[in-house]
Amino acid sequence: MKVWIAHLAVLAALAVLLAVLPAYHATNLARILTLAVFATGYNLAFGYTGLLSLGHALFFAAGVYGAALPVTYWGLSPLPAIALGCLAGGGMAAMVGLLALRTAGVSFMIVTLMFAQAGYLTLLYFGQITGGDEGLVMPDATALIPGLSPDTARAVIAFALFALALVLSLAVIRSRLGRVMVAMRENEERSRMLGYNPFTVKLTALVLSGLFAGAAGAGYALLFGYAGASFATIQYSILPMLYVLMGGAGTTLGPLLGTAAMFYLVDGAARITTATLLVVGVALVLLILFAPKGILGTLRERGARWIP
Amino acid sequence: MKKDLLVPSRRSVLKGMGAGLAASAFPGYTWAQSAPIKLGFQLHRTGIGAAYGRWYERTAQAALKVVNDAGGIGGRPVEILFEDDATDPKRGAEVVEKLANDGCDLIFGPLFSHVVIGSAPRAGELKIPYLVCSEGYHVASGMLNRWTLQPGITDVRSQVSSMAPWVAANLGKKVTMVYPDYAFGYDHRDFFTEAIKAQGGEVIAQIAIPPTETTFTRYLPQIPAETEVLYHVMVGPAVLTFVKELGDFYGSGARPQIFGFIDSLEAVDTASPGLEFLEGTYFWEAMNRVKQDGQTEAETAYRAAVGVDDTGASVTDAADVSTYSHMFSVWETLHTIKAGMEAAGYQSTADRQKFVEALEAMTTMAEGPGNPQGDKVFNGKTHQVFGHQNISQVTGGKLLRVHRTSIEDGQYADAVDYTTMSF
Known about the structure:
Structural class of chain B: alpha/beta
Number of helices of chain A: 14
Distance between the termini of chain A: 12 Å
Radius of gyration of chain A: 19 Å
Radius of gyration of chain B: 25 Å
Number of strands of chain B: 15
Number of helices of chain B: 10
Strand content of chain B: 15-25%
Oligomer: heterodimer
Mean pLDDT of chain A: 93
CATH class of the largest domain in chain B: Alpha Beta
Largest sheet of chain B: 7 strands, mixed
Number of domains of chain B: 3
Low-confidence stretches of chain A: none
CATH superfamily of the largest domain in chain B: Response regulator
């Protein structure tokens, strides 16, 4: 119960922040929340189930285009489009998972990476429809929620997506399924001996993760007005991993913290130096040296054992 | 009671204090009048566009110095805030927000199409003028918005179309095109095919190269034997391999005329080992990187200001070849910003709309210090500028101009009227 209250308090704090921050930072927060949905999904697969995927860009891009194409070609309104994007991400994860989960470890990384690359090239191949590398411009953000200003609508949608993702992720990891997922991560063979089917558990985790990635991709495209094949590049597989590693893999709030930290690290570094990537690199090296379990993971290890 | 001058009354003390306050406020007032105009520059400092970004930044700095030395904009000094967008559309949109939040009066400078298309919606929503130096057809095609304009460089549709008359008349009418299999390549494919047809020629084969390809030997046999002109545009490092393999393919035997777009070789020395096969072939150049006979005074000044020597390389490092056919757009855009702001009587960010309207009202830009690439025609409806293009031949490893197109060669029917859209 305490854990639930803590999480609801975080959500309440986010809602207040969205309402009181100046427009620029509120928009940044909406961005961070949307990307944190992606990271939260990644965390379910990687942090809790131990599936190190390099193919999540494909699920994110499936969400981007699952929403962007119906909006562009059929004039679908944004909210149902986000639902479609979410399903597209989950569906893509199911298809990839069915094949890629026959492998594990490094092979799994490589196979998922290959699928993502194939997805990227497919988006380029159908450039007439997808806009390819140039991409598509989404409708004006005033259409997001009729009657609401773009900034308000963006904040509402980003918050709703993140709140849903956080609650769902917490519910999953506190459920029986969540504990089996952790068992798979810790010792797959022993779990199998106990009667669990690793394939089904891992596939379920991957599909859940894909649903999150899809919702994030759909939200991102519609909230910020752009869909393009660049969202399927390897960079978008690495980003959620960095967010999760920085915030703390296997912690529910780590992905949010990691996303925010990375965002403001890049943003802040650019104010003091042109070598922003160097700053990010040094920060990551320091993280690995001094807090290999990420921010929340390290706090948990150092005594705050209640952090879920 | 008689007033004693030596014993000041309360009123005179107050008057004196008032005058003192006004006097002390005066320097502040003049300072506010001359507070700098802040321009945001969305820079490809890292990522795939870094070679271009490096030169775009240098050109912007050089143009900034020239503008400030001449009194700034409307008497106010100008400063530029550079922000790296990593040549990524997601970061590009964030950079637009950041620069707008930092109080920039407008944003300019991006080159890569996907960054422009990813960022323009945010600029439109934030109602901040967004002046791109991208040469993409996305502005004039109507894809973007009222706040996005391209006053510094001719778009690829116009560039490509303007090549057709000379190619058909001088090189041949049966053309085979080799282009990258993504949007940039499709603009070439579609618009050149259409333009050469209008000249009585035809494209007899279109060979699209997937972006992941590192070797081209399996595509070269697809070039039909009756090809008179081989038209190539390949952006990226693969161009060196492409040229070498093309050389191996034709050997010392007969080859078709070869015409290409310099985009592949921007920031690359045409005399590099491996590019010998390019000798005698032709290239589009927006601006001739090698100093030509009869170079205008304006271009001489421009070349010196941006630090480019007579061969097109940096004056401090001969191996650092410029992106000469693109970077002038930054220089010209900054000068157009000056002209537009002064025409609009621009005072503060509240005048952004007036500034866009002032740009839309522009029709011609005369060749001169602000437009060293040449005179231009600006179409306020499509937000796109049109200028002269050049065709150069590689002679002794150097690009020498053989033809300069007219502006009319590159004009096409309007696809959009942005002026009818709301702000």
